[in-house]
Amino acid sequence: MMPSVTATLRFDNRRLRTLLIALATLLALGLVLTGSALLGEQATRPDFQARLLPPGIDHWFGTDTLGRDLFSRTIEGLSLSLWVGLLAAGLGTLVALVLAVISTLGRPFDAAVGLLVDMILGLPHLVLLILIAFALGGGTQAVIVAVALTHWPRLTRLLRAELLQIINADYVRLSYHFGKSHGFVLFHHVLPHLMPQCLVGFLLLFPHAILHEAALTFLGFGLTPGQPAIGVLLAESLRYLSAGHWWLGVFPGLGLLLTVLIFDRLGASMQALFTPREAQT
Amino acid sequence: MLSASALRYCHDRHRDPVIDSVSLRVKAGEIVGLTGDSGAGKSTLGRLLAGLLRPQAGRIELDGTPLPRHGLQPVQLLMQTPELAVNPRWRIERILHEAWTPDTTLLEALSIRRDWYSRFPHELSGGELQRVTVARALAPGVRYLIADEISSMLDALTQAELWHALLQVVASRRMGMLVISHDAALLSRVANRCYRLNAGQLDALA
């Protein structure tokens, strides 16, 4: 046996690579967030002498119809979308996890959660979103709550199935048999098993959350038009695309695409870290 | 003494019970064999005795008192497939230490090597992993073992080694044991007496 195998913590190539990807994506997200903090003021300052300029040295992504720098607006919009997406998807995942745990408590609980899931899934997504956002009076908070409250059902179903499978697994039964408490089993056997599903669910929610934020904003129930959200930028660009001002739509759209891809990458590498078998083969 | 009286268990209410009025006694220091056709309910009986399943009728008692509801169970089950008995996300060291910290003599007796500690279960062979689950189940306070086909997937040599080590520990601690197996030769070697489970009933074998 090679001596290196005896080390208590091993990092083979795959683990190291996934860790590096995770760090790089976190770094990229951090850059967007700090960028928005630095460029925030620039994003809303109009300059009527520099209206609708194509991309150039002074304005990397060009300017819009009020002469505002599109690069700052894109970064600002991305960070706004990121926050809305993160919070909404995070809350949605939390709701799904809690409801999934509740559904495993007994038959009546399971039936109640199942009914709730079917009810929400049966309603048209956007209608429910508009209703909740409208009832809460619009704005960033309303969008976050609306998206969080409408996006949990599918993940709840998935997590419930996973939970049922794991609490009946032999090694979980044996853990109780070794005198381990419910808390120990929950935190050491059950939740680590659910982490990848939660992360994947979170990452699938994330683009949805951003898109629905944009949809709500577009329809006038979401963020105010003054806020440089990606949804607002894209909606604004529609009017100018036919006039040849392509940069108004292309750059914010590309930014959104990259953000979603980065998150996807992060999720994939995290999943590999959490499931050793897949991570090593 | 581990005693089961008039046990009854059905998987499905509308079908015949798998276990029907089965009574069985295993004394401390005694090794009892259990055989029977596939699907006869041997593993179900094993799970009932270990307290992993609740019988629909009948009692299981340890020295005249019911099995404890909490804490380390004095009757432990060793399973046929060790892969299902361990958390695939845990490293061997954590798995081995879940119930207690096995001493070096036991680890040596079961030839469990230190360099397995940092591995995941899928990086061990079935026989190696089975030895880990055996060591894990031998916590102090465990007085009876139910060995459910624990060596059926091992080659003859590994099988002999595993039984040699296990029987030594069981004898030195005066533990009782129920050995479930298809292998008549194995049962005749290790068991003091044998039963056959047939249509939910236990028949004593000569």
Automatic annotation (TrEMBL), chain A:
Classification via Gene3D superfamilies: MetI-like
Transmembrane regions listed in the UniProt entry: 80-105, 126-149, 246-263
Any GO BP: transmembrane transport
Keyword tags: Cell membrane, Membrane, Transmembrane, Transmembrane helix, Transport
Keyword Transmembrane helix appears in the UniProt entry: yes
Signal peptide range in chain numbering: none
Membrane topology: Multi-pass membrane protein
Cellular localization per UniProt: Cell membrane
InterPro entries recorded: BP-dependent_transpt_permease, MetI-like, MetI-like_sf
Organism superkingdom: Bacteria
Keyword Calcium included in the entry's annotation: no
Family: Belongs to the binding-protein-dependent transport system permease family.
Protein name per UniProt: ABC transmembrane type-1 domain-containing protein
Organism listed in the record: Litchfieldella anticariensis (strain DSM 16096 / CECT 5854 / CIP 108499 / LMG 22089 / FP35) (Halomonas anticariensis)
TrEMBL record, chain B:
Keyword Nucleotide-binding in annotation: yes
Any one GO BP annotation for this protein: transmembrane transport
InterPro entries registered for this protein in UniProt: AAA+_ATPase, ABC_transp_ATP-bind, ABC_transporter-like_ATP-bd, ABC_transporter-like_CS, P-loop_NTPase
Keyword set, alphabetical order: ATP-binding, Nucleotide-binding, Transport
Keyword Nucleotide-binding recorded: yes
Annotated TM spans: none
Family membership: Belongs to the ABC transporter superfamily.
Protein name: ABC transporter domain-containing protein
Organism this protein belongs to: Litchfieldella anticariensis (strain DSM 16096 / CECT 5854 / CIP 108499 / LMG 22089 / FP35)
Higher taxonomy: Bacteria, Pseudomonadati, Pseudomonadota, Gammaproteobacteria, Oceanospirillales
